[in-house]
Specification:
Strand content: 25-35%
Oligomer: single chain
Largest sheet: 4 strands, antiparallel
Order of helices and strands: EEHEEH
Shape: elongated
Structural class: alpha+beta
Strand order of the largest sheet: 1-2-4-3
Helix content: 25-40%
Radius of gyration: 17 Å
Distance between the termini: 17 Å
């Protein structure tokens, strides 16, 4: 299993010029932290997707989470809270994502034994 951790947002200012280059990023809105969990084995993909359904029900009590199911697993997304320090939120997301990954790894190891 593998995990990809990222952040995605929409640019607030759209430009009509296709070749505009800037050093500074535009202000962004609708940002999401993303943890994509992927598996290669079909049996584990099925379990991973079931886990995603359960996880989403448990997590939505605190924050606005969403799951996009993919061919090889799912992407767990949480909206960025712009009232909080971005770097602190990012660090918390990375820790949360790694803990989620480790729990799933342990679960799959137990299933194999």
């Amino acid at each position: 299993m593998e995990i990809l951790i990222s952040m995605k947002a929409d640019d607030m200012r759209r430009t009509k010029f296709k070749n505009l280059q800037m050093d500074m990023p535009d202000t962004q809105i609708n940002g999401h932290f993303i943890a994509e969990l992927r598996e290669a084995e079909i049996e584990k993909i099925v379990l991973l997707k079931r886990y995603g359904e359960i996880l989403l029900k448990k997590l939505n009590t605190k924050h606005n989470y969403a799951i996009d199911y993919t061919e090889h697993g799912f992407k767990l997304k949480r909206q960025v809270d712009y009232d909080k320090d971005y770097m602190e939120e990012w660090d918390e997301w990375v820790v949360f994502s790694h803990e989620l990954y480790e729990q799933l790894e342990e679960f799959f190891e137990e299933e194999e034994n």
